Structure formats: C-alpha cells, structure tokens
Amino acid sequence: MLLPAGESTLQQVRQLGESLKAVCHPASEAADRMEAALQTYESFEELAIDHARLFVGPFALLAPPYGSIYLEGERRLMEIRL
C-alpha cells in the first residue's frame, strides 16, 4: 500500500483516466496503465527512488526530461534555430 503522498498521486491518476475517457480513449487507457503500475509500488519512497534514477541521476540521466533531447536530430539540449 502506498504512503499518503503516493495515495494522493494514485487518486489523481485515477481522476485523470476518468476525465480522459470523454476526450481521448487511448490516453484514458494509458492513464489506467499508469494507475496499475503505481499500484505495484510498496511505498512512495520506492517510486521516488525510481523517478530519481530515471530523471535526476546521480551519474547519468536514463531519461532526460527535456523534449529537445528527443525532438532534435542530434539530441541537443534546447537548440536554438534562427
């Protein structure tokens, strides 16, 4: 069972899935999968550790949280085009 902070996150994801059903069914299904994935964590701390490992480091970012890394052909950070 997730800690209170994790339970709040779980409720928000559940609400997101419900809200998306009327707008975009595939996005609603993705939110449902996200809810199911969140329920596999034993604690919010475990989820926070996984988040940090992906987006913070300490040595390398496994999933950089910058769109330009994925959108620019040369994987540059915030490339400016003139």
Task: Write a compact overview of the structure shown.
This protein is mainly α.
Average per-residue pLDDT, rounded, comes to 79
Strand content: under 5%
Shape, per Cα inertia axes: flat
**Structural class category:** mainly alpha
Radius of gyration from the CA trace?
16 Å
Report on this model:
- By secondary structure, the protein is mainly α.
- It is built from four helices and no strands.
- Helix 1 runs antiparallel to helix 2 (25-38).
- It is flat, with a radius of gyration of 16 Å.
- The model has no long low-confidence stretch (mean pLDDT 79).
Jot down its keywords.
flat, 59% helix, mainly alpha, 82 residues, 4 helices, single chain
What order do the helices and strands come in, and which of them pair?
Blueprint: H1 4-20, H2 25-38, H3 44-55, H4 67-71
Helix pairs in contact: 1-2
